[in-house]
Amino acid sequence: MNPYPAWLSPGDNAWQLTAATLVGLMSIPALAVLYAGVVQRKWAVNTMMMVFSAFCLTLIAWVLWAFKMGFGPPWIHTFVGRPGPVVGQAGEQARAGIPLLGGLMPRFRFPEGSLVYFQFVFAAITPILFIGSVIGRIRFKVWLLFVPLWITFAYAVNAFLLWGGGFWAGQGALDYSGGYVIHLAAGVSGFVAAAVVGPRLRRDREKATPNSLPFAAVGAGILWLGWNGFNGGDPYFAGADAAAAVVNTNLATAVAMMTWIVMDMLLSEHKKPTFLGGVNGMICGLVGITPAAGYVNGVGAMVIGLVDSAVVWVLFAYLPKKVWPFNKVDDALGVVYTHGFAGLLGGLLVGLLADPRMIVYLGAGRTPGVTAAGLLYGHPRQLLIQAGAALTVIAWDGLVTFLILRGIGLFMKLREPDAVLAAGDVQVHGEVAYPMEEPEAEPVFGDIPGGPVPAHHHHHELVTDDGKVLVTSGGKPLGRDGG
């Protein structure tokens, strides 16, 4: 008896499954606790619910039809693959392969199940990233409908165009691990979604106090180290390029985080370094190096970390205050900056800095090794290709996000009513992140517009933007922000 088919490498398979699990940890628990720690106390449960539900829904859609749309045989020319399930024996145990990439890279030495799961965790994290744009007002039911539709019509198309052998892959566009497919897509879609759904309550925008920075730190740390699987797993082999990608990822991130911290100390209004500022810089570095990780050398990685963080810092400080439409759209956690602009910059910088001496796959005989060269290494056309791919993702994802939400909006309201927005988690889910014990009396429930809220013996009011009292209930407020 033999546990391994002749084509399977235990080392390759073990690394691919490990890398996939590291990427999965970036969503649950990393982004669940990072976002839940950064938002107001009254939205912590809702944030975690949106993260976990998106993870579930994406996997279901992925194995039933979306994986084949991104990585299967072509269906609509070179735009998208043919939908189909991968839940049978062949879809889990047969040798992995991407039809349009045959002969362009070494044959995989792990089963299709490893490829399906690895690409699933990339798909899942993308809508999860832009939860930060719409948190604090989008209806949970709307989110449950939106995620599988967006994965189908936006993400699967991005993946096929750039990773599945589609049009931009054929043109030679470089996106090592998702600067465009994931981060630019998340930034654009999150921004459009925030514009369509509308802003949070004014009082919530003015008092957007993080509820737990240590909680956020745990999420940020797991996110950073999980990125070793994100970029280290994308060569599909545990070779030298995977090691280079991991080193470059951490190097760019370290430079980017320190760049943001120093700019906060020198240029911000209060001239103080902040932890959340440092996390923004960290994310800019992780996102910026993602499209370039195995194509650039260490110097290129440091340049990307520096430039990405510095430029996004300036954009973050300037655009929301003075430039339309950024000053009109309530992108709650600034996803358009730390993912959208950071991914765009990283994708363009790889067009400058890709080093042809960095070998992704070794050549054999007359077959040359797989490398990439940017403008600074004698290939100026690469920058134009990168720009074209970016414009495609921006236009397509923005349009699809708009149409999906407008379509859902024909059947149900996209926003929770003001009464629910004032109360937060207890109205949406019937539970809160930090319950306060009242030993002298059990809570009772009183009806208010939007549903029941706990009522105790002490007076507490919730008000809308115009000052109208929506709730008068007994008991202490569930959160320090009135949630």
Outline the structure in words:
This protein is mainly alpha-helical and 483 residues long. It has two domains: 10-409, Ammonium transporter AmtB like domains (Ammonium transporter fold, Orthogonal Bundle); 436-473, no CATH class. The chain has helices at 10-38, 44-71, 89-93, 112-129, 131-134, 140-162, 167-171, 179-197, 202-206, 213-232, 240-267, 275-289, 298-322, 335-353, 381-409, 418-423, 425-428, and strands at residues 74-76, 80-81, 444-448, 451-455, 460-463, 469-473. The strands form three sheets. The chain has a two-stranded antiparallel sheet. Strand 1 and strand 2 (80-81) form a beta hairpin. The longest helix is centred in the N-terminal third of the chain and has 29 residues, at 10-38. It is globular and about 65 Å long.
Report helical residue fraction.
55-70%
Largest sheet: 2 strands, antiparallel
Q: What spatial form do the alpha-carbon principal axes imply? A: globular
CATH topology of the largest domain: Ammonium transporter fold
Number of strands: 6
Overall pLDDT score: 91
